[in-house]
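Sample log: Interferon induced transmembrane protein 3.
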Amino acid sequence: MNHTVQTFFSPVNSGQPLNYEMLKEEHEVAVPGVPHNPAPPTETSVPNHVVWSLFNTLFMNPCCLGFIAFTYSMKSRDRKMVGDLTGAQAYASTAMCLNIWALILGILMTILLIVIPVLIIQAH
């Protein structure tokens, strides 16, 4: 049995065997939907406010602001998954503003629904 070890040589490095990184770069294939050079997640963390939007959707939901905020949160999440961080940040910012307004209006409505009946009962 004749076992021979075969090494691959590149004409560029003239006799030096190729290492894994060089082969990987040479045969790298772009995958659709994935950013070419993704940055580490710690640097590109874009909050999408999904939980906050869901909370505002389920409780009070004045003028459907919670539902609209939830929609923008989902759009932000989708943009982040595609790699469009600018779009994700824009949608997240809109979702945050809508969540703030939904929370403020929800708190005011809750207070009014408690205070007005109490005042009416005390007046009688």
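Observation: The mean pLDDT is 79.
Observation: Residues 85-123 form the longest helix (39 residues).
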